[in-house]
TrEMBL record:
InterPro entries: Dup_hybrid_motif (IPR011055), M23ase_b-sheet_dom (IPR016047). Residues 1-52, 274-294 are annotated as: Disordered. This is M23ase beta-sheet core domain-containing protein. Residues 344-432 form the M23ase beta-sheet core domain. Residues 12-21, 34-51 have a biased composition (Low complexity). CDD domains: M23_peptidase. Residues 274-288 have a biased composition (Basic and acidic residues). Coiled coil: none annotated. It comes from Acetobacter aceti. SUPFAM superfamilies: Duplicated hybrid motif. Pfam families: Peptidase_M23 (PF01551). Transmembrane segments: none annotated. It comes from the Bacteria.
Length: 436
């Protein structure tokens, strides 16, 4: 019931004793302090309702922005996953190139070893022939003189001819061996030259592939980070607006309570005046006042109902050697006996700068240096399984980023090293072979 209604009710209350009209009139006029409190409460209520209306509009705008940010975050998440998927083929091609580079380097080393051995054989054969060359040259120029000028018997001459023939055959064999080894050396040097050229070409391709892979991985990481920041900012704005509206509504409720108290006081004063003036109609008036009070209380209670903001719907996320994770070879396998106990994971020897790929699809839970392990990555694969990759030189993904199996996650140090791959189910390590 408003102040005007209460005033009208008080003014229109008839008196059955006209002689005491002046005395009764003092009872029917509300007190100044009560009237002032009611007017102040009503003015404050009007101001607060205007402010609440404006705040409700801002809250609605913040909710819309939050919903738009959530939708954009979902799109960015899908884009991040797509970018991560795009790195799978690039990472696979880079790993093939890295394996090819290692193979060519091994062939070059073998060819250089063959070249060195052939050169050593040539030098050895040349040293063996060196003492016989003057004699062979003299015999080739004057073969008969060297035999006929001797004073020995005929059989010695015949024996000398046989020795000359054997020496000639030996020299011819040695010369043929020298020619063959020289030809082998030329062939080896040709192969070596071609392999070195091929190695340079493959290394150039590998450098381009690494740059492109880093670009794609960086784009996926940035998209995920920007999406998370925008979503958090929009959610924070909506929460702040909701808190403002909540505080404003609490103040409005307090004002309404004060207004109700003032109205109740006016009502009590009016009721006291009516009881003094209308004793005969007290019961009927009491019932009427009770009904009026109940109706007023119902209306006031209706003003106090606060409509709760509906929460946003939750988003449901749902080769050997390096085993496809890194170009390298297996050093120790899970469960293999070591000095400190059984190995808790697989350890791979990796080439310097080799790319490292995700062993499963999932979400990055940790991507940072960790103690003496170097750069470490923890990837949640779902169903309670997590991969731990330690020993990287650099990491190209961010915490919270969604990855696809086979996508690039980083690279080994430039000095090479070992990559530890551990699969954990809860608090225990398990054999990672089933998921590799």
């Amino acid at each position: 019931m408003s102040y005007a209604a209460s005033s009208r009710q008080v003014r229109h209350a008839p008196s059955s004793h006209s002689g005491s009209h002046s005395a009764k009139k003092a009872l029917t006029v509300p007190s100044t302090s009560t009237r002032a409190a009611l007017e102040a409460a009503q003015a404050r209520e009007t101001a607060l309702r205007t402010q609440a209306k404006a705040e409700a509009a801002r809250l609605e705008q913040a909710r819309k922005q939050n919903m738009a940010a959530a939708a954009q975050a979902a799109q960015d998440h899908a884009r991040s996953v797509a970018l991560s998927s795009a790195t799978v083929a690039a990472a696979e091609q880079l790993q093939k190139t890295e394996n090819r580079t290692q193979s060519i380097q091994s062939e070059v080393e073998d060819l250089r070893a063959d070249q060195k051995a052939t050169q050593a054989d040539l030098q050895s054969d040349a040293r063996a022939l060196e003492p016989m060359l003057p004699v062979a040259q003299r015999l080739s120029l004057y073969p008969m003189d060297a035999l006929l000028t001797g004073a020995g018997p005929t059989e010695d001459v015949v024996r000398g001819l046989q020795v000359m023939r054997g020496l000639g055959n030996l020299l011819e064999t040695r010369a043929e061996s020298l020619r063959n080894r020289q030809n082998d050396l030329v062939t080896i040097e040709g192969k070596l030259s071609r392999q070195i050229a091929e190695l340079s070409r493959v290394e150039a391709i590998q450098s381009q592939q690494r740059a492109e892979l880093a670009k794609q991985a960086n784009a996926a990481r940035i998209a995920q980070i920007q999406s998370n920041v925008a979503a958090r900012l929009a959610s924070s704005n909506a929460s702040q607006e909701a808190e403002k509206q909540k505080a404003l509504q609490a103040e409005l409720n307090s004002v309404l309570a004060a207004e109700a108290a003032a109205m109740a006081q006016l009502q009590r004063e009016a009721e006291a005046a009516e009881r003094a003036a209308r004793k005969a109609r007290e019961a009927a008036e009491a019932r009427h006042r009770a009904q009026s009070t109940a109706a007023a209380a119902a209306r006031i209670s209706g003003h106090n109902v606060i409509r709760e903001a509906e929460p946003l719907p939750a988003t449901v996320s749902s080769g050997h050697g390096g085993d496809g994770i890194v170009a390298g070879r297996l050093l120790t396998a899970w469960g293999q006996p070591l000095e400190g106990g059984a190995a808790s994971g697989n350890t791979y020897s990796a080439a310097p700068g080799s790319s490292v790929r995700a062993p499963c699809s999932g979400t990055v839970e940790f991507a940072s240096p960790f103690r003496s392990y170097g750069e470490m990555l923890i990837l949640n694969c779902g169903h309670g399984y997590r991969f731990v990759l330690a020993g990287l030189g650099s990491i190209g993904v961010a915490t919270g980023q969604s990855l696809v199996k086979g996508s690039s996650v980083g690279s080994m140090p430039s000095s090479g090293g070992a990559l530890l791959v551990q699969l954990r189910n809860g608090a225990r390590s398990v054999n990672p072979r089933s998921l590799l």
